């Protein structure tokens, strides 16, 4: 509607624009997602490789940096663990952090971020097959939010890596990044992470239509 040469947006315009945005955004993205999944389903080799790559990277981070690092339990019966005798009723603290860095389990390079180590072994986030890796705890009191937690971490990290080029500030080298931990419920990084994102080459090329 025109009034003194100015365009006035009324409810009809707003509704049309909203409808346009919804249709343009959801229909297109949903169609491409369906195609991507169809191709992956038709090519199990690629599906498996993609899935394993995402899992391997997530697993390696959870191994070195478990957000639940000390899990309290109470022994419900007498038990022997290695050379230790644990009496029923004893308060036991499971050190998940130490389990993830145990050299006798993860080899001499246990402290290294090396996701390839999960190429040879199945990633068992729940500690069902073995108790060498339990970032979500295990058993009846294990984390009920495991699927949401895992999906969130994988989705956000994949998006951030895909969409941006990342650099440390002020010409800082990778080996200078402080990896110190702060003792606390979720064992956060002691120093805040400062990183500089710039537009990813891939996204930039896509914008130029290349
Ligand atoms: C990366 C994300 C997450 C990590 C690393 C994590 C880790 C853990 C760990 C280690 C435990 C203790 C398990 C045990 O004692 O055996 C736990 C418990 C729990 N988590 Fe998570 N969690 C995550 C996300 C979530 C989410 C998204 C939810 C809810 C939607 C959730 C809800 C809970 C609850 C309710 C418990 C207590 C269960 C109980 O005591 O019976 N967690 N989580």
From TrEMBL:
GO terms for molecular function: heme binding; iron ion binding; monooxygenase activity; oxidoreductase activity, acting on paired donors, with incorporation or reduction of molecular oxygen. The keyword Transmembrane helix applies. Its main location: membrane. Heme binds at residue 143. One of its GO terms (cellular component) is membrane. It is found in: Membrane. InterPro entries: Cyt_P450 (IPR001128), Cyt_P450_CS (IPR017972), Cyt_P450_E_grp-I (IPR002401), Cyt_P450_sf (IPR036396). Keywords: Heme, Iron, Membrane, Metal-binding, Monooxygenase, Oxidoreductase, Transmembrane, Transmembrane helix. Its cofactor is heme. The chain crosses the membrane at residues 16-38. Belongs to the cytochrome P450 family. PANTHER family: CYTOCHROME P450, CYTOCHROME P450 93A3-LIKE. This is Cytochrome P450 CYP736A12-like. It comes from Senna tora.
């Amino acid at each position: 509607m025109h009034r003194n040469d100015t365009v006035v947006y009324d409810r009809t315009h707003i509704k049309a624009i909203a409808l346009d945005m919804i249709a343009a955004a959801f229909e297109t993205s949903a169609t491409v997602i369906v195609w991507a999944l169809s191709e992956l389903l038709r090519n199990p080799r690629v599906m498996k490789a993609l899935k394993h790559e995402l899992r391997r990277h997530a697993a390696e981070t959870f191994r070195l940096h478990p957000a639940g690092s000390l899990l309290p339990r109470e022994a419900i019966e007498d038990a022997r663990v290695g050379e230790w005798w644990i009496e029923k009723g004893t308060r036991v603290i499971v050190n998940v952090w130490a389990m993830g860095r145990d050299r006798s389990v993860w080899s001499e390079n246990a402290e290294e971020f090396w996701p390839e180590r999960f190429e040879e072994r199945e990633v068992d986030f729940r500690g069902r097959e073995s108790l060498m890796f339990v970032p979500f705890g295990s058993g009846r009191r294990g984390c009920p939010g495991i699927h949401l937690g895992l999906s969130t971490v994988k989705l956000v990290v994949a998006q951030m890596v895909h969409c941006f080029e990342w650099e440390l500030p002020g010409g800082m080298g990778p080996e200078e990044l402080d990896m110190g931990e702060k003792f606390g419920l979720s064992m956060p990084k002691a120093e805040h992470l400062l990183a500089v994102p710039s537009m990813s080459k891939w996204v930039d090329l896509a914008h130029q239509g290349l």
